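Box 4.2: Ligand-aware structure prediction
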Amino acid sequence: MKATPTPLPAAGHPADSPHQVLGAHGQTVAAAQKYEGKREKSRRMRNLHAKELSFSRRAFERFGPDIHVLDSPCGTGRFLPVFSGAKQLTLVDLATNMLEVARSKTEGMGHVTTLNEDIGDLSLADDSVDLAHCMRLLHHFETDKMRLHVLKGLARVTRGRVVFSFYTSDCLRYKWRKLRGTNIRCHYVSKAHMAELCERAGLRVIDHEPKVNLYEQQCFFICVKSRPPRNRNRPFAAHRARDC
Ligand SMILES: C[S@@+](CC[C@H](N)C(=O)[O-])C[C@H]1O[C@@H](n2cnc3c(N)ncnc32)[C@H](O)[C@@H]1O
């Protein structure tokens, strides 16, 4: 099979661009590869990585395999082993270096398309994918407005399901950090609040994992499209989350 050629823009973006590439992954391929290695750094990271892969694999088995999957943001293509069996796979990331690493893994895969885009301003048509997958992004957005905008965008492009992860405040890790006054870098929301945002985006939560978050903060939601989102236009791009 032949890879779909999607030219990447020149490295970096103009400093005043809303899509400016910022944050912990830097701009080079080496920085992206270093980020990838982070998943192997400690037992906790390896466990989280395994949990995330297992969740996504089960979601794919539940709704796949004869489907069009959108993985946004795809990062360095961590979920390629899970989704490569889909009928069609679209990988989206705003960082050119991350996407370049992901793209290097898709050589010979004609059913895979890579797009250098903002998740808040996806060029995909309405109802064009069956499963939209968004791992490890939402906790980087500071406001409900941004979270809602991203969820609405995912609801717009899917004709079926949206699965995503976020950091929930309904866990001991968060409460403990709050109590101790530890610096909390990411943005946590309760499961009830996230479900409400989903509802406003036109998504209904049909399942979540884990059933109870004891210590860990990561929570996975599985949603179905309930109705068209109220606001179908694209008022602003989500911008790249910092430090993700
Ligand atoms: C923590 S990484 C997660 C990547 C992948 N989902 C994973 O779990 O391996 C966050 C990714 O989001 C990308 N990103 C940040 N803001 C974005 C935006 N507004 N649109 C698309 N991608 C974005 C970053 O470039 C980075 O690759």
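In the box above, the bound molecule is S-adenosylmethionine. The beta strands are 68-71, 88-92, 112-115, 129-134, 158-167, 203-209, 218-225.
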